[in-house]
Amino acid sequence: MTAVQPTAMMSGRYQRAFTIAVIFLVGSWHLVGAGGQLLHNRLDYSSFGFQGAMWLVIALAITAGSVLALRETPSWRSAWAVAVITLAASTAAAAASPASQMLAVNWAWGTAGWAGLLVLLRRRFIELAWFLTAEAAATLSVQMWDGLHRTDLAGFLAVLAWSTGAQVAVAAGVRALDAAADQAAAAVRSEHAARERAATAEIIQAARHARWLALQETAAPLVAELAAGTADPGDAQVRVRCAVQAARLRRLLAEGDEVPGSLVHELYASADVAERRGVAVEIETAGLLPQVPRPARRVITDAAIAILTDARTHARITLAAVAAGIAVSFVADTGAGIQLPAAGEGVTIQQQQDGGMFWAEARWSSR
Amino acid sequence: MEQQVTVAIIEDHPVVTEGVTSWIRSDPRQRVRLVHTARDLTGLRSAAQPSADVVILDLELGGELVTTEIPKLVAAGYRVVAFSGHSDPSIVIETLDNGAHGYVSKEEGRDHLVEAVLAAAADRPYVTRSQARAMLADQQPTRPVLSQQEQQALLLWFQGMSKASVGRRMSISENTVRQYISRARAKYAATGRTAASKDALLARAIEDGVLKPGEIVQYKSFASGAADRSGLGPPGR
Q: Among B2, B70, B108, B122, which is disulfide-ready with B98 (CB 3.0 to 4.6 Å)?
């Protein structure tokens, strides 16, 4: 959990920086490049007011596109809404330009490509290709409508090559940088995971060693007493001691697959306390257990502690994989019923009292 | 007096053999008689006739797993109850697939071993909690399809409830709980490799009304080795 977030954030941060760079590029182009051209040729247009209105429409589309792009990769609906509005405005501006001076005074056509690039940047490459093709086709249509000359065509192709080339290059560059950021994040992630694994192994090793040492203090003397004949297996007290030590030995043997933070590990820790009171606790698992989120784990271990505190001589805890979740059950000789802590966090608790035996099951489901 | 069931113990740790012997002796009705103990299988292999009804087999002899020896024992006419410290579900399932009647973990021995031996001698299912655990955890493609009721009964039994408590929990009789668990076990006998012991268990399950013959045919399709059970299916199916 902790291993993924920082690295995901890291690659996210880089991608955001690239987006901001593209927004800056597109905004500057529209403001300085297109705006400058519009003002410079203001006397040549039949209606400067209409051209200005179209410039404003595209400016608004760029603003909306920037907000969308900064949030996340825009959905195809919102991305294409912005792209189509831009395309329509630029085509209208081109159509309203004086026929013979199209190439010189048409400010709109580069800027529309950039605005489209902004929203389509992180969508499939083919979408950007379609958009740029549509834009080129629209501009060419306007020119043909106006009566295309050979010189106009050459000029058109030159401008097309320049603007489209630049736009495709920026899109490809951002993609390459995104991929590099992802790779860097993945490298950090795997390094982080390796470090965590090593730390985990160390903790497990230390816990195992500590438990082994504890066994030397408790199990070894018992075995010695049994061998010397000073402890009588016929004595109920001795049998309880044997049962407790056997449970501890079993836990030591079963420890191999535990990781800190897992539910099994936490239940083992809860059982430790009861064992010191002389309660024999056995813990068994069945099936491949899912990861349970921390709040749900807390509900389950709280129930475990409540039950283990009241257990007299023995308790059995089982964890079983069930459809889309886990069933953790407790059977203990508590004598009377137990007030269990509240369920919640996706955990439901059921209980049943049969004579001196108490059964409870905490079920967590990911659904 | 009822006929005593004869048993052989194959176990390489003398202290365990001693323990098992004392459990057999402490049975108030003396239903089981110990006829043979050995640290390996050579004695049983060389005998011309089965020298005991049931073999209590430690799955690890001299540091080696002997699950693959089970089919030979079964073919020689023994019923096998595995008694082992290996509670890994895959080993338990393999043991059953090889034709063992039951599996008893070393922790369960005192409470379940004698009963498991008696059930094996009668070809009746006997499911310990560790065996229920293995059946619940089983993810093999050849595993039988268990009904929801059978699964729930197995789960509650594995969790440590008595069968009477399982019945109360599921609002059914204790006898029905036994039926569900036995049926789940019998379904396992209908899958995987062929063994005389599995056929006997199935035949007995049908006789006892635990399983209907039609239910076996249904599960035969899950059998990996195209098991031949023509003697068991109802005619015409």
A: B70
In whole angstroms, give the CA distance from residue A340 to residue A350.
Answer: 10
CB-based contact A354 B165, cutoff 8 Å: yes
State pLDDT tens for residues B109-144.
888 999 999 999 999 999 999 999 999 998 888 888
* Token pair for B128: 């310990």
Chain B residues at the A interface, defined by Cβ less than 8 Å, are 89, 107, 129, 133-134, 136-137, 139, 155, 158-162, 164-165, 168-169
pTM for the model stands at: 0.59
Of A286, A316, A359, the CB nearest to B136: A286
Structure tokens at B225: 């080795």
Q: How many CA atoms lie within 13 A of A364 on its CB side?
A: 24
CA angle A92-A96-A100, nearest 5°?
Answer: 130
d(CA A332, CA A243): 15
Q: Using alpha carbons only, what angle is made at residue A54 by residues A49 and A58, rounded to the nearest 5 degrees?
A: 145
Cβ of B169 within 8 Å of Cβ of A287? The answer is: no
| Beta strand ranges found along chain B (DSSP E) | 5-10, 32-38, 54-57, 60-61, 64-65, 79-84, 102-105
